[in-house]
Each structure stands twice: as C-alpha cells, then as structure tokens.
Amino acid sequence: MLKARQCVREMREYHSPLSSPTTELRLDMNESTTGCSPRVLAKLNSMNERTLAQYPRREAGEKLVADFLDVAPQQLLLTNGADEAIDLLCRAYLEPQDEIVIVVPTFAMYDVFSQMEHAKAVRVPTGPDFSFPLERVLKALTAKTRIVVICNPNNPTGIDVPRSAIMQIIQAAPDAAILLDEAYFDFYGQTMIDQIGKLPNLFVARTFSKAYGLAGLRLGVMVGDVEQMSVLRRMASPFNVNAFAIECLAEALADRQFVADYVAQVIASREWLRKELEKLGFKCWPSHGNFILCRFGDEKKNILDALRARGISLRDRPDCEGCVRITIGKQQEMERLMAELKQVLSQLPANQATR
Amino acid sequence: MLKARQCVREMREYHSPLSSPTTELRLDMNESTTGCSPRVLAKLNSMNERTLAQYPRREAGEKLVADFLDVAPQQLLLTNGADEAIDLLCRAYLEPQDEIVIVVPTFAMYDVFSQMEHAKAVRVPTGPDFSFPLERVLKALTAKTRIVVICNPNNPTGIDVPRSAIMQIIQAAPDAAILLDEAYFDFYGQTMIDQIGKLPNLFVARTFSKAYGLAGLRLGVMVGDVEQMSVLRRMASPFNVNAFAIECLAEALADRQFVADYVAQVIASREWLRKELEKLGFKCWPSHGNFILCRFGDEKKNILDALRARGISLRDRPDCEGCVRITIGKQQEMERLMAELKQVLSQLPANQATR
Lengths: 355, 355
Known about the structure:
5-stranded mixed β-sheet, 7-stranded mixed β-sheet, 12 strands, Aspartate Aminotransferase, domain 2, 41% helix, homodimer
C-alpha cells in the first residue's frame, strides 16, 4: 500500500481561516483594502493573449526588483509569494532532525515548511509584551541549528526586532541561514538588505502582498548571498512566478507615491484605532505593521462571532491569549469597525468584558 | 560557513532554453501560438483591485475543475503549474535513496525535483522508435521504488503509452505512486482519470499551459486517491495558485468550442508538417501532442542557428540524437516554417544534410 513519508503524514492540515466570500470587510488576512496602484491595474487589464500563452520570463522581473532594492540580480530570486521563498530556504538547508529556531507567536508557515523537511522546530517564546527574546534565541542555538527565523516586524504582534539583536544572531550562528522576514517592511522602514553581500548567511524575504496590495498576484522576493541564492535558484521551478506578476512589476515599483500614501494612511489609522481600542479598555501592542494585536480577553469568541454576523472578519490568534489581530483598512473602515464593535459590546450578555 | 544540503548543492542549474524575447515565432516551448479563449481574456481584463489584493481561494477553483473532470474535489489539488504537482509528489513519497523510475527521453523536471529529495533516478531508455519499454520498466521496479513516472503522450517524442501497459505497472507497484503526466491529454483524447477512486496509487497530472493557451497563468491539476491527496494538500501552500488562475477557470472550462477548434487545427497542421518534413527526407515520429519530434541529423545545429537568425526558435533535444522538437502553431506559421527551412537547407554549406 502506498504510504507518504512519515513526516508529511503527520503534518496537520493548515487551513488559513479565510473569511467567507460574502464578508464585507475582511480584516483577517493583513491584505490591503485599498488595493493596488491604478497603474498596475491598467497594465494587467491590457495584457494580451500572447503574454498569457507564454511561459513567463522571471529574469526580466528579477532585474527590475534587484535595481529597486539596490542588489545584484544574482542576489535575488522572485518566488510564488514569500511562502515559496520560505519553503525553498527550508528545503535548501534542513536535513531530517536539523533544527530551525522560531520565535513564537509568529507566522504559521515557518513551522509548516520545516515539518515537511522532518526538521525539529525549536520554538522560543517571546519576552514580556512579546518583545524579541534575544538571550533565549542565542541560548537555543546548537550545532544542529540550520535556520533561525526572525520576522521583523513580527506577525501577529507587530513588535520590531532591534538591528543589534539581528546582528548578534547572525554572528553567533555562522553555519545557519538567518531568515529575516521583512513582509511588513514598508510599514516599518528599517531593513537589513544593506547587509546582503556582507553577511553570507543572511536572507531577507519581501512580498508584494501587503503594501503593494497584490496578494492575489503571488509575488515574493528572496535576497541573499550570491552563492547561496544560486542554490535556491537551482531548486525553484523555472516558471514559479506567473506572467501577471512579472508584467506588472515595473508599474508597481514605479508608482512610489501610491505606496507611500497608502502606508501613511495605514499608520495614521492604526494609531487612531489603537487609541480607540484602548479607550474601551482593550490592551493593544505598539505595531509596526498594517495590523494591530488587541486583547479582547474572555469575550473574544463572542465579539468575533458578533462582528462576523455584521460582515466584519478579524483574525483570532489563539497563540496570543485572548487576542485578535486586526488588519488596518481605510480610515472609514476603521471607524465602521469601532462603531460596530461598540454596538456589539453593548449587546454582550455580560456587558462586562474581561479586559 | 553556511552550506546547503549536499543533494541540492550538487544539482545542476536548469535553464529552460527560452528563446529571446525578440523571437517572432517561438516553437520551442510547446506553448499555444493561438492563445487563450477570448472569454478568458475578457474575464482577466475585467478583474478589479479587490480581487488582486486578496489571497486567492483555491477551493472555489477546485470545485469547478473537479466537476469538469468528474471527480470529487477531495480527489483534486490545483497547483502552480503542473511543475508544482510533480514536485509535491516527489516530496510526499521520496526519502533519500528511494528510487523513482523515469522513462527517458522525457520532460526534464521529473529528474530535477527528485534530485531535490536526494532520490535515485532510475532512467529506463525507451524501445525502438521511442516506444514505451514496458518490460524494462517492470524489471526496474524494486522494493525501493516509490514513484514511477509515465508521461502520456510523452514529451518530447509524442509517443503514447498503451493503457494496458499503464495498468500493468500500477498493479506491479502497489507501494509506489504512479504519476501519469497527461499534460498533452487534449491532443490525445485518452485518459486514466476514470480510474481515480479505483486505483489508490494512481495520480494524474494535467495543465492549462497547453491546449488552453495559458502557460503564463501557471495552473496545474493533480488528481488522485482522496487519502493521498489529503497529504499533498497539507504540503501545498494555501495560496499556491494565483487569483487570475482561479478567476478565469470558469470561462476557460466553459469555452469548449475554443479548445476543440484549437486542438483540431493543431492535429491537422501537425500531420501536414510531418508529411512536409518527410518529403524533405527528415525522419519524424508519430505524435499525439502539440509538437513533433524530427531528426535533422548532423546539420541540426546549423539549421537551428539559421532558423533562429530568421526569427524562428525550435527546441534542440540533445537527448534524442540529431533531433529537434517543433511546437505546432497555426497552419500559416507551419507554412512559414517550411518555407524558411527550405531556404535554410538550400544555403547550407554542404547542401546535403545527413538525414
């Protein structure tokens, strides 16, 4: 009888909790509710059947993104979303029983992809207020550590990681790949990409799913040392990135004003929302992403259900006790959320949420 | 110092020999030169920024394709091109040193993906005139065989594999996954999908890159036993398929006449081209795909170079001695190819190609 490898048979099914298609306001996936630049849309809507019928040339897109990030094309690989970048890294470096250090709570896919390689996930809990646990990470490093993942700013907490901490880890683990996931870079503004070419074990992942409003496009970026990237490039399917992603890249990168305006609005609305939530007595954490982590406490499930019934989806984060992650949308969407939330709270059976 | 796993360090870089962007007539990738249905194009060109900004819902597309193929959605997975389907299968079943049986010459990616799992590729040569070597495949099966790949019709030869041979292999290797790659099904008309649900070790791969003219879209399909597919589903990234692929599926599947007309034209032009090439003394093999294998012999390189200078790319197949693979385009494109080829031949130094 046919049997899959043990480590994949033992994998749990990962269901991303996508809200129903009828949800009016989807604030559970850290997507942009503003969408992409009109220039990207115009480009996509003008694509012809010839481009669609041909296998896509990733190299042309890689040149554009490399120029934009000020790295060499040989230091860069475009991927089918940042998910594929993470997956390729796990496949490149993890043998069975090797260790990958993951600071939790964080993005779920690091765990999923490392399971597939039959690696051992060493989960290091964050410190007080979800702060980055540098000392614990350093202590977790062993001779079997092949990857250390640092999500900066971290999803779902929004907390950032000091550059000095990242540097210490990179230097403490020269035989390990350090994956710096900068998916939310645009909302944060700090990067380690300047160290690519200097630190041979550093990898930086980026995505067009967040600030560029292009999650449907599936376009991720991995940047790293030329020699290491040459290995990742060999592993990737030559046609891993679709034609739309490649065709629209130039427009997406060129419309800087669009991204800047969107980022500025998200940051302003995020800080507004945080204050509003705190006024209601809910604890929030300072966020550097397009989302905010908020503690609803014991009433979390009731609040989430009631909001969902009103067409609004937030993301439950069972890995952060009593917390939900709220994607920042347009200001009016945040105002609607607050109005609905206040109504929901007034109708709760207890009307006294534990906060 | 950071080192990737040995098996991936040893991988050769796979460069798909994509012709230059200025090639007028690209007959080297088995793409459709006709393109996709106008209904698909209209749908794509009407997509809005909301769809682009959201993570795609693969499940909706899987229901459509499952209905179309008359299987259950649980028996099916949509993938980022058929490449990802093949890759997932290798990752699900191959442990290091396990064996994958591949009949050669064939599609290069089976080899690439199995290398990544550190598996041993057992390459079984085809029989006379590239016929399927059933006896040799049966003899190649061992206790370590975890996958047998059957590409039907085979790329690059166009040769088909008798259903009885496939059945014998499925039954002879109950502990192995039998991957039946039906990428060129639409030009062939025979399938084993009817056996899904009956033979628990059979997997059938399909693609929208060929008859549907959507290689740029990156959309593949894997069909198999519910239990096995549940493993593959767990391994796949939840957002492996882009929003365009999912959005246009309904239109692509609905426009049956478009696909039928294209397939009929390709088959007619293929047979026309074969006769023309044979008139020039070149050996061709009977093909069931949207391509034809032709032996140019010792003059191959000169002919390919000269055609390329005239804006036409054919695919060199060094794995088939003296042969090239020619994608079938529109009839007038095939007539242009023949006209240019005749001119090229008349100008060859020897003017006496060894055929």
